[in-house]
Amino acid sequence: MHKKYLTLVFALFICFSLSAQQGHSHEGHDHGTEGHSHGTHQTTKEKANAHKGHKHDGHNHDGHNHDGHNHDGHNHDGHNHDGHNHGKDHSKSAKHDSDHGHGPSCAHAGHGHHGEFDPAATAFHHISDANVYSIGPWQIPLPCMLYAPKKGWDVFLSSKFKFDSTGHGDGHQAYNGYILDAGSVKRITEPGFPDGEVPIDGIIHDDEDIAYACYQGKMWKTDAKSTADGGIFGGGITSYYDFSITKNVVSMLMVMLLLTWIFLKVAKGYVTRKGMAPKGIQSFFESIFVFIQDEVAKPFLGAKYLKYQPFLMALFFFILGLNLWGQVPFLGGSNVTGNLAVTMVLAIFAFLVVNLSGNKHYWEHIFWMPGVPAWVKTILTPVEFLGVFIKPLTLMLRLFANITAGHIVMIIFVSLIFMFSKNGTSVAGGYGTAVASTALTLFMSAIELLVAFIQAFVFTILTASYLGAAVEEPHHH
Amino acid sequence: MYGSIAAIGMGLAVIGAAIGIGRVGASAMEAIARQPEAVGDIRSNMILMAALVEGAALIAIVMSFLVSNPA
After folding, report:
1. Distance from CA of B43 to the nearest CA of A (A)
2. Counting one residue from A and one from B, how many pairs have CB atoms under 8 Å apart?
3. Does one domain contain both A180 and A326?
4. Among B44, B61, B69, beta carbon nearest to A401
5. A190/A269 same-domain check
6. What is the pLDDT of residue A477?
């Protein structure tokens, strides 16, 4: 019986891998006529090489860093190769550049990926948040709520971007200066781009992964949304803020509703079946609940555990629910607990609960550790004080890194198919790797199920241990 | 070429964490072998310790991410 299920799942995974591969090879053909894709890739590569060689020729004035934030010029320096064209040609025509064939340009603009398959870019695309929700190959539009200083609010549905219902979520239309690039909204920062619904010819990326919208043969530079991660994953504070109901938000709402439904049902079970043994979903959740209560809440919090138990349970089941939600194939694989903002909010809650319930004894141990010589206190106090902030910081990073790493590993295993099939040109390589990578992905799925539980447990147990240290009563000897 | 140096940093951090978590796991196994009835307590403490060791490595990894993106 079990074998049957396993075979079924295995077959599904293989189908999925192969269909994904097919989808990709079609994209390859988008660049040109049938069978031309390989040639296109090669030229792109050559262009990239030529471009790099050119970059080292001392044309520093064209560098990205210098001109990247300059808004008065036309901002595709570094591809423009003004220096190459006798140094003073500041022509705005992208067509002109493309004739010289350096770097990305709108002449070859298509939708989807460009050049060779880039596993790192694919991985980062799939672990990042999106303004569309993908179920299997289908993309579902979500509400966008965007705010740009001076420009104000823009609230609309992301279907305004006219992306394909299947594919990678690249919009064929700009709306009020926003475009949809691989599922996420970007804002055209160059002045002069018309508001309203504007059909665009495509979106291209440069070496630094800055996206450009192609409109009327010109490249229009775009900004990614502002992020609070200091630009680790692109962004930082940019020209606009995205308050949309994104894929992650939808996932969180779904998990929240699911958990509410489950626990109301469980709670009702205790009322209607009072004094009887738990049944069905009730008995399943009772065992998990009691496990957290006995292994986490009671040992660390002692007699006061009831006061903090709701917080700990909420943390545990919310994190566990989101971890598992991201593991379900074809449901979007949203990487919610692998999002630094989400884990940061969870960690801030833990920080507030711990420090607001800290008693005199707790603060005394931080600022003036009793029972150690004064000179040791001068070292200990700063360390303990930093520890107050490092604890939530590590909570945040641990959950984020573990879940993100899991998602990346899965994507890389699937990416192996595209790497070995050379983007759809080598059929034998593709089918051969599909089998192996499906097996590896299944194996990783099993590990990730374990990790989903362990990380939810670790977050809860660490919060409980910090809480326990904060509310512990002093021992009188 | 920032990336390559950051990668070395990441690798070093992971080596440290691997040694730490390996020792935690090995000691837990020994403890369980010695006292199989205490397996529940040992397991949760093992996970807690492994998580704490991991925390230090994670900070190092994120730092190397940060220095590899000077923008």
Report:
1. 10
2. 42
3. no
4. B61
5. no
6. 56
- On the 0-12 / 13-18 / 19+ scale of CB atoms within 10 A, A126 is buried
What pLDDT, in 10s, does the model give residues A321-346?
Answer: 999 999 888 888 888 998 888 999 99
Is the CB of A453 inside 8 Å of chain B's CB atoms? no
Same domain flag for A350 and A442: yes
Check if A146 contacts B (Cβ < 8 Å): no
Q: Does residue A305 sit in the same domain as residue A450?
A: yes
Q: How many domains does chain A have?
A: 3
Q: How far, in Å, CA of A465 to CA of A182, rounded? A: 42
DSSP-derived letter for residue A226 is P
ipTM: 0.79
Give yes or no: residues A153 and A62 share one domain.
Answer: no
Q: Do residue A336 and residue A305 come from a single domain?
A: yes
Residues of chain B with Cβ-Cβ distance to A454 below 8 Å are 47
**Residues of A in Cβ contact (< 8 Å) with B17:** none
Residues of A in contact with B51 (CB under 8 A): 398, 458, 461-462
Q: Enumerate the residues of chain B whose CB falls inside 8 A of the CB of residue A397.
A: 55, 58-59, 62
Q: What CA–CA distance (Å, rounded) separates A235 from A226?
A: 5
| Residue A198 domain flag | yes
Show the domain range for A355: 2-19+248-471
CA distance A162 to A170: 8
Same domain for A56 and A202, yes or no, is no
Question: Mutate which of A66, A291, A395, A397 to disrupt the B interface (most B C-beta within 10 Å)?
Answer: A397
Domains of chain B by range and CATH?
Answer: 2-68 (1.20.20.10)
CB contact under 8 Å between A398 and B48, yes or no, is no
What are the tens digits of pLDDT across the range A89-147? 333 333 334 334 445 667 654 444 445 677 777 888 888 888 888 887 888 889 888 88
CA dihedral A455, A461, A466, A469 (to 10 degrees): -160
Whether A255 and A220 map to the same domain: the answer is no
pTM beyond cutoff 0.90: no
Alpha carbons A277 and A283: distance in angstroms, whole number: 8
